[in-house]
Design goal:
six-stranded antiparallel beta sheet, alpha+beta
């Protein structure tokens, strides 16, 4: 506790020293920390420890402190901890170099490797970070496949991130067309911000009237102008100013957001004064966007062919007329004078990490060559933990698209690309987009984006023709399906989509099986064949039949209760392993969790009753311990099924009872118990060896690759151990009539309070 406090004080002191005030604006410092989390070896995305930090607007510097500590004192060697940093969404990583599913696009994140022996920390500084959510993920190297038993000491590493930011609280605002005078000096940049409205097509920031206090460099600005923020995937637009002024221009700037402007001086020991102004132009701004107040959504989505036309201005992006390509798919028809055509989109929450966006007019959307068609899809933070899917299909029911024509689409964040042609790329001023196209030969296209950024995504559609005029096909219909799913195609046949949580943030990832790997479990480079899956299933299930000799021996020696426990264990272990297989050779007769519980319970109870049977204690005491132990074992299994002490506790208690009974008999008889050396050599020692070898296999040698035959060998050894260790039949033992055989003439009578049978002949006296 004291160590954590001292580290926090040191971190705050270093932060205060590093983030000194530059005299231009007022800064405040904010600190945030996350609890330490235990790191895991990477096998799938669920092994990544994910943390989310929020960076507010006008943050000048962000500084992360990453600390990794080891929990044990014994030597574990050096391990590399990999730290991933991503803005706007969780990082998409691929440490094992697996293949991603088809049409799945992703941007690499920043990764840091931190060597750790016992305790290590490192810092990461970021100037002018983008405001919003930042995600930190950390994990150990790739999992070697070894199955570690819970409860045994192991090398544990804990990861704790801390964030310190320096934020400006009185940043000047650049008004359009108004010059603002600023002064910069060494290590004292000028920080400003401007608001970019929606439908802005271009933005320019100009610097003029540069002068120095000394006057020697009045004709040379020697300034660096930066527009935008840093988000690791992109850097601000930078312009080196020379002369008395300069300007920076952005085409397709981000809409409806604040844009950071930073001006720095490259002169040493000199102060530069300048004037700065911004200018934002709107190439195509509508009077209204979306549905009007008197529009009925059900009417727009219905199967009506009626129209509701209204006049549109010459710069309108929307028309409210509804026509129909066919009776089941109404579409909007754009006016000839529109410069861009915006379609209202309905936002529908289906389930957790399951969202669907539908055009208000229906599934079909009209696309023309005269102007682009625009659809907007706002994604909130809760949706960034899934996968953004775009499926674009060409509707060729009534219109046939020529071989030289295609529908070009661009999916971009924060701002749309309103000019789609072969020369312009699908990219805005500060962000890149994803381009797809459909034509007559390839009428369908798919794009999948795992963990999309939390912002508004824009889909721009336009008909593109190789010739100047598209001819008769100037208007076509496409079906854009945009939705959020938890995983890519539900992880396929050999994967399972699991919902993960980091505090209140939910995200999903695929866990693969049967050797398949990859983000969507589509990489079959190490996949198991069907024959291997079938072999593993048969070995793990049929090896439980080795309990049959133990059951027969127990019945023959009149240990009926013990035989029942062995039968229970054999049955549920067989069907648990038949249901637990990772591939397609699977059979589940009931819920998986119930099968696992019964298998674990039967295994521990089998050991419990076997050792107590070896103790040779009185039946009343023995069966009392049987029942008491079964109840306690059932309780512990419910609390922690895979805990180490759930197995060691009953074993140690049973061994203690057995040793106590044996010592008592040995002292009472003044002879070693069991007295026969043949019993020791031929039964007890081989049984103990089988048990010891089985435990060693179970604890130290099992891996994911050899599990199916090492665990099968464990079944054989445990069953053989029971056959060797079960004591011989007690002399003159009558187990509730079993020693008499199956006699149908046996009829018990009640003698007092006990159920008994009198062997004596009754004499009657007749008076």
């Amino acid at each position: 506790m004291g160590y954590c406090f001292l580290r926090g004080v040191l971190f705050a002191a270093l932060t205060a020293w590093t983030f000194a005030d530059d005299g231009q604006v007022t800064f405040v410092s904010e600190l945030s920390s996350k609890p330490a989390q235990k790191l895991s070896k990477y096998g799938w995305y669920g092994n990544v420890r994910l943390q989310k930090f929020h960076i507010p607007e006008d943050t000048a510097i962000a500084r992360w402190l990453f600390s990794v500590t080891k929990s044990h004192t014994f030597h574990c060697g050096q391990h590399n901890v990999t730290i991933h940093i991503q803005y706007g969404a969780p990082p998409v990583i691929n440490p094992t170099g697996t293949v991603f599913p088809n049409a799945t696009l992703w941007s690499p994140c920043l990764s840091l490797i931190l060597p750790v022996t016992s305790q290590t920390s490192t810092t990461f500084n970021l100037s002018d970070p983008a405001p919003g959510d930042w995600y930190i993920g950390a994990h150990l190297p790739e999992d070697d496949g070894r199955i570690e038993q819970k409860g045994f000491p192991s090398c544990s590493y804990f990861f704790q991130p801390q964030l310190s930011i320096r934020r400006a609280v009185d940043t000047p605002v650049l008004q359009q067309g108004t010059f603002v005078q600023q002064t910069v000096g060494p290590d004292r940049p000028a920080r400003l911000k401007l608001y970019v409205p929606e439908f802005a097509s271009s933005l320019s920031v100009s610097v003029a009237d540069c002068s120095s206090e000394e006057g020697a460099l009045s004709g040379n600005c020697s300034l660096v102008l930066r527009l935008g923020s840093t988000s690791l995937q992109r850097r601000p637009v930078t312009v080196n100013c020379s002369g008395i002024g300069c300007s920076a221009s952005l085409s397709n700037p981000p809409w409806d957001t604040w844009l950071r402007v930073v001006v720095e001086s490259t002169l040493d020991n000199r102060t530069v004064t300048f004037s700065i102004a911004s200018n934002c132009s709107v190439g195509c701004k509508p009077k209204s966007v979306g549905l009007k107040t008197d529009d009925d959504i059900s009417k727009l989505r219905g199967n009506s062919s009626s129209t509701n036309s209204t006049a549109a201005s010459n710069s309108s992006v929307i028309t409210d007329s509804v026509t129909s390509v066919d009776e089941s798919a109404p579409v909007f028809t754009p006016p000839p004078s529109a410069c861009v055509w915006s379609i209202p989109v309905l936002y529908e929450e289906v389930d957790v990490l399951s969202l669907r966006f539908t055009p208000a007019s229906g599934p079909n959307v009209s696309v023309t060559d005269a102007h682009p068609t625009l659809l907007a899809y706002p994604l909130h933070t809760q949706a960034t933990g899934g996968t953004l899917n775009l499926q674009l299909a060409l509707n060729t029911t009534n219109v046939t698209l020529g071989n030289s024509s295609s529908v070009v689409a661009c999916l971009s964040p924060r701002a749309p690309v309103l000019e789609l042609n072969h020369s312009e790329s699908c990219r805005t001023a500060l962000f890149g987009g994803y381009s797809v196209q459909v034509n007559a030969s390839d009428p369908k296209a798919v794009v999948r984006l795992p963990f999309p950024q939390s912002t508004t995504w824009y889909l721009t559609l336009q008909l593109s023709c190789n010739s100047i005029d598209c001819g008769n096909t100037s208007l076509v219909s496409v079906v854009p399906e945009v939705f959020i799913s938890a995983c890519v195609e539900d992880c396929g046949t050999y994967g399972e989509c699991r919902l993960l949580r980091s505090y209140s943030y939910l995200y999903a990832a695929c866990v693969c099986k049967a050797g398949w790997s990859g983000w969507g479990c589509t990489d079959d480079s190490a996949a198991q064949s069907y024959s291997r899956q079938l072999t593993a299933t048969l070995l793990l299930t049929l090896s439980n039949l080795s309990f049959l000799p133990a059951i027969v021996v127990a019945i023959k020696r009149f240990y009926i209760t013990e035989a029942t426990v062995y039968l229970f264990t054999m049955f549920f272990s067989t069907f648990y392993h038949a249901c637990d297989q990772p591939g397609v050779a699977v059979m589940c007769i009931m819920d998986y969790d119930a099968l696992q519980y019964c298998d674990f319970l039967g295994s521990v109870c089998s050991i419990w009753v076997t050792i107590l049977c070896m103790a040779r204690i009185r039946d009343a005491f023995k069966y009392t311990l049987f029942m008491l132990g079964a109840l306690l074992i059932a309780m512990s299994m419910q609390l922690d099924r895979k805990g180490l002490w759930n197995l060691l506790g009953p074993v140690l208690c049973a061994v203690l009872c057995m040793v106590t009974a044996w010592v008592y008999r040995g002292v009472q008889r003044r002879h070693c118990y069991p007295p026969s050396w043949k019993r020791w050599v031929l039964f007890l020692i081989p049984g103990a060896i089988c048990a010891l070898v089985g435990v060693c296999l179970y604890i130290f040698t099992e891996t994911e690759d050899n599990y199916y035959y090492t665990h099968s060998l464990w079944h054989l050894l445990v069953a053989s151990c029971v056959v060797f260790l079960l004591p011989p039949k007690e002399k003159n033992r009558e187990a509730s009539g079993w020693s008499r055989g199956w006699s149908w003439s046996w009829r018990p009578r009640v003698c007092g309070y006990t159920l008994c049978q009198s062997d004596k002949d009754e004499l009657y006296t007749v008076t």
